[in-house]
Amino acid sequence: MELSVPTKKLHLAALRRFFDRLVNRHACVINPAATVKAERHAVVEGKTPQIDPDQVRTLLKSIDVSSLVGLRDRAILAVLVYTAAGVGAVAKLTFKSFKHDGTQYSLRFSEKGGKSREIPVRHDLEQFLREYIEAAEMTEGRLFRTAYLKTKTLTKNAMTGIDICRMMKRRLKAAGLPGYFSPHSFRVTTVTDLLEQNVALEDVQYLAGHSDPRTTRIYDRRRRKVTRNIVERISI
């Protein structure tokens, strides 16, 4: 198949699991895909572009929060930045996901693979969320909802991950920032920023919701800065 190596490996993994199910149900004796070896593919650094912290600040400050939609968009982007959550998990947040335990506010995320994690909410994110919830007069349902075209009022329909991506593209364009960034770029920036501050890898791994520290390292862009310094010193 004329596909990329990662796609081939994904197809092969699906075949292995399919034949495993057949073996478990006694439909066949052995798994013929179990011993098939795919091409080697090692990922040292991810392809997701990193958005600079200064660009993040510019993006958040550029949002006009005089409307309910502006408050919503600022809250969404702040959640992505200050929790390192995936866009799908952010889209699934409900009103009850934002709760106070008597000492602090937190957000409970439902992530891929049925995982559930609770992330503390920092003070500025708490303010953004409370301002949005109060303006929306929200008491139940999904936390982030779609808007009625250009009326700047919200519907009862939940935003999807795709809706959040499109919203971010619009906000990037309005702020005069490159349009190739995505919600995933915030995860890269947050992970790199914490590692640069010498936060323990296992703590950053937990925040990002990774089961393997090697996945967390893929998000680390510190090496890119080192490489840039090295090539600038070439005296040719």
User: pLDDT under 50 segments (min length 5)?
Assistant: none
CATH superfamily of the largest domain: Intergrase catalytic core
| Mean of residue pLDDT values | 86
Please give the domain count.
2
The overall strand count is 5
- Distinct helical segment count: 10
CATH topology title of the largest domain: hpI Integrase, Chain A
CATH architecture annotation name of the largest domain: Orthogonal Bundle
Care to describe what's here?
The chain is mainly alpha-helical and 236 residues long. It has two domains: 1-41; 53-181, Orthogonal Bundle (hpI Integrase, Chain A), CATH 1.10.443.10. Helix content is 50%, strand content 9%. The protein has helices at 5-24, 53-61, 68-83, 87-91, 123-136, 161-174, 183-196, 201-208, 213-218, 222-232, and strands at 98-100, 105-110, 116-120, 145-147, 154-158. The strands form two sheets. Strands 1-2-3 form a three-stranded antiparallel β-sheet, with no helix packed on it. The longest helix is centred in the first third of the chain and has 20 residues, at 5-24.
Which labels suit this protein?
single chain; 236 residues; mainly alpha; hpI Integrase, Chain A; 2 domains; 3-stranded antiparallel sheet; two-stranded antiparallel sheet; 10 helices; 50% helix; 9% strand
Strand and helix layout:
Blueprint: H1 5-24, H2 53-61, H3 68-83, H4 87-91, E1 98-100, E2 105-110, E3 116-120, H5 123-136, E4 145-147, E5 154-158, H6 161-174, H7 183-196, H8 201-208, H9 213-218, H10 222-232
Antiparallel strand pairs: 1-2, 2-3, 4-5
Helix pairs in contact: 3-5, 3-7, 7-8
